[in-house]
Design a protein that fits this description.
The chain has helices at 2-13, 25-39, 98-113, 134-140, 155-164, 207-219; strands spanning 55-56, 68-70, 75-76, 85-91, 120-126, 149-152, 169-172, 181-184, 188-191, 197-201. It has 222 residues and is of the alpha+beta class. The longest helix has 16 residues, at 98-113.
Amino acid sequence: MRHVALSLRRAAAMRWRVPMRWCVPTRWRVLLCALLLALGGLAGCKGGDEGFMLTDITGAPFGRDFQLTDHNGTPRRLADFRGKLVVLFFGYTHCPDVCPTTLAELAGAMQQLGADAGRVQVLFVTVDPERDTPALLAQYVPAFNPSFLGLYGDADATARTAKEFKIFYRKQPGRTPDGYTMDHSAGSYVFDREGRLRLLMPYGQKVEALVHDLRLLLAAPG
């Protein structure tokens, strides 16, 4: 579709642009860190003892599982990807810049990983199931990398998943009924090979930091 091609062009042109206001990534990172510190059990919101460059959220009491369907029509849970690292990002296909930019950066990370990219699964969860049909996700998500999977659920499943993963999203009306945008959290989560939530990658973080930390997790025993 037309907006898919437009999103890909924007991703290339706007890769390092400051995020647009509706994704509020900086504010969300602050809120997430405050939440984790309030819940306790975590050392902080910076790199941990393992030398991570991204935000270490090991032990976070959320992000345990989801029950969604991938763009091929296969029901999926986090356990389906056991044995691989998982990078999980929430967005929507009509997103004007943050989502395509993030997916383009994740595709770049897979290129840098080389053969190890096969040990990492990128998942894109739509927060806009009203417009993001399986057919649209199947066209949009693998356009960045053929291994990437789009995940979707109905409105209730989307809300449950967002709540479990501490994701904010909200529809903002547009000029037409289908012309709305979605405010949403803009960070990406990284899970280790045992399916444990380990890292938060805020929007705007250099992709080299992600590659560095993925390699650390891939090299870890287990």
